[in-house]
Amino acid sequence: MKTTITAVRGRQIWDSRGRPTVEAEVMLASGAVGRAMAPAGASRGAHEAIDLRDGGDRFGGMGVERAVAAVNGEIAALLAGRDAADQAGLDEAMTQADGTANLARLGGNATVAVSLAGLHATAAAEGLPLWAHLAAGRKVRTPLPEIQIFGGGAHAGRRTDVQDFMIMTPRAATIREAFEITADVFRAAGRLMEQTGRLAGAADEGGWWPMFSSNEDALSALVQAIEMSGHRPGEDVFISLDVAANELDSGDGRYRLGLDGSEFGREAMVERVADWVRRYPILSIEDPVSQDDLEGFAMATQAYGDKVQLIGDDILVTNAERVRKAAAANAGNAVLVKVNQAGTVTRAKAALDASKALGWAAIVSARSGETEDVSIAHLATGWDAGQIKVGSFSRSERMAKWNELLRIEEAMGADAVFAGPSAFAASVAAGLK
Ligand code: 2PG
Ligand code: MG
Questions:
Q1: Which atom of ligand 1 is least distant from the CA of 154?
Q2: 258 vs 343 pLDDT, higher one
Q3: Active-site residues: which are they?
Q4: How does DSSP classify residue 310?
Q5: 18, 227, 290, 416: which one has the fewest Cβ atoms less than 10 Å from its Cβ?
Q6: 123 and 196 together in one domain
């Protein structure tokens, strides 16, 4: 069979933070080769698949020699002779062999690289770009991007409490136009920060790392940057926030905002974000409460879930079961899909399918530690997820993915459809009409 696996190879490479990560290659009988690289998060949820790190003194404990050895040893032996086209079988073999729920033994960084490499190899054996292989003849949309302008939280020395200040352009006609508007806003935001003497560098995902005195100050600056760019806040350009509230949770059920020195309980945290939703042109909020606060997530949904997209990242960790549980509790209306949070392509796809079945929206997402790997541009399109989150509009590990989406849109030609408002769950989409 042309898609029979003949060899699997792993190696250590370096990610966008200069940390080691795992690259895998899967070779097939046809001669086709697939390659993929594991990304790595900084604001990680406790329920994610485990990144296996070597510990010790070398590379600050971040080495991946054990994960690479797992790819070249146990995983390579396990997968040789298997059919790469049977993605579920390949992923199941790895998860079974691992034997833990969170892939702690072989490493989620090992399994995700191999799983994605197997997918790439299969598409290559078919002579198809990955997105087209995944679409399998169905009509799919290019995703609506959410793109970071200011970076904060764990990605920028906690200069702001909120982690990602992003923009969305659902009324753009194409992804090309979405990027053109974003480029204007990104440049304007840089100019504004420079003019006001508040520019302190670039955050982990390439966004501006500015000095703000409060989270509201950052929100106002973003609105101002949109206006300076010549676009209209709340009409062409909307704000999307990743609060990453897990990082604000002090562990005793209280949230602490370091910038303004305030501290409050769950109700007040929900109210603080609800206040932002009332005052600024916000269209999407991610993780407004911490990873185990399902009740708080439901309260947030009750408060503003009919107006804005409410995304679960650390609370759902790309897990179909957690998505269904959240939906049953009326908590959230969208899931962030990170393949390395799940550990395999199959598990990530299951979380996406669960969200679609519920009428939720889905956002395929990169991590704060990335590489030149562009797989997620293909997954977001080929799975028809509707949305994608990659970080900012600078640094090549981010731009590689945005640029790949331009190539995909071009390859679709006259058939290309941009997700736009259709990317959202019904109530949010209706508000955009
Ligand atoms: C997130 C991601 C990307 P990290 O929280 O959504 O912004 O961050 O990869 O550090 O978890
Ligand atoms: Mg997040």
A1: 10
A2: 343
A3: 205, 338
A4: E
A5: 18
A6: no
